[in-house]
Amino acid sequence: MDPAPPKPWLKPWLKPLPKPLPRSVSRSGALVTEPLGALLGSVPKSRPSWLTVVKTTVAATVAWVLARQLGDNVAVLFAPIVAILTLQASVYGSLATGLQLLFANLVGTVLAIGWVRLLGLTWWSLALGALAALVVARQVTNTPLARNQLTIAMIAVLVLAPVAKGYGQWRFADVAIGSVVGLVVAVVVPERPRLRRVREALETWAAASVTILLDMADELERRAGEPVMAALAQRHDWIAEARELTELSATAAAELAGAEETVRFNVGAGRHRQRVAALRDDQVFLVRVTLQVRSVSLAADRLYDRPGPVPALERATLTALLRALAVLLSDRIDGARPDDTALREALTAAVEDVHTVFPSAVAVLDSVSLLGRLDQLRQDIVGEDAEALIDPDTLPRS
């Protein structure tokens, strides 16, 4: 059982606080019944912009028209397909995708032409051809897009070559036309950086970081006096939440990378560069905060509600400090200047207090280590202006 009532300097943070809600989440959204909800939730939520839709339509049409002008090229297939697949939200993405598709389609076409001339087209030669394409794709490509396209290219040429005069030979021209048209459209009509989506991803990530701190405090408070978790495999509920920060950080990083690519290759997007740079600073800040939050969550999970001696750092003290950090982080996210004066005093008092439980520093090592992580999180939230709990230069040296 944890000792002592909470200290007076913790009173501002003893009551549960409301948890933040990301702006991109509705407060009254209906839930889809499981397991259908889980299935639908796993579908990527990213949608192309209307500009991308129009550009892709134009690129496919132009590629098909150009390919049809080439002599006996009557079975135009790859030109519009490659143009559609090449065109991405950014010029950089279009260039990377175009090169992958160009390589994959050329290799698949060469394999198909040689395969038909060597074995003809029967059900078993088609099966062997598909197997050969998959094996070659596995060895010479390193992305799912290129791997799938190589196989599709070979099968398409295998199936259509016997009935379309010169089909295999014209596929080289098709692929080149589709790639060039897709790249030209991407360069001539560049996308605008999708800054709103980047901000929403960062806001969701930040709100989750605040929520985890509050949930840790609430769960510690709720478990007070309950039986301990006998097995190390049992974890507090907040551990699963902390793991989800990794996915949120990856989503935000991907959105930000897309915006940076768009700005880098879009001459007209120069006015957005400063805003993208500011969003990158926000992302770096949240990476530091996330590392500290996860570190605190793991340390608290290992220290509390476990068999053995009660931690020197009282449960009520830790609960209050976590809520104080949540308030500080929320202020920083909202753009306010975080004031950590009271929190510094509370952390200092907490460090001094754990030494009154056990006079030996070794006996309170876990609690002091956890307090050190909390203080590091405080400093990361405050930023460059953060002050240490104590100035080492003011202390006497032995």
TrEMBL record:
Q: Can you tell me where the transmembrane regions are? A: 49-67, 74-95, 115-136, 148-164, 170-189
This entry carries the following GO cellular component terms, namely: plasma membrane
Task: Reply yes or no: does the keyword NADP apply.
Answer: no
Q: Report the InterPro entries cross-referenced here.
A: ArAE_1
Q: What is its main location?
A: membrane
Q: Where in the cell is it found?
A: Cell membrane
Q: Which UniProt keywords apply?
A: Cell membrane, Membrane, Transmembrane, Transmembrane helix
Q: What is the topology of this protein in the membrane according to its UniProt annotation?
A: Multi-pass membrane protein
Kindly provide the name given to this protein in its UniProt entry.
Integral membrane protein
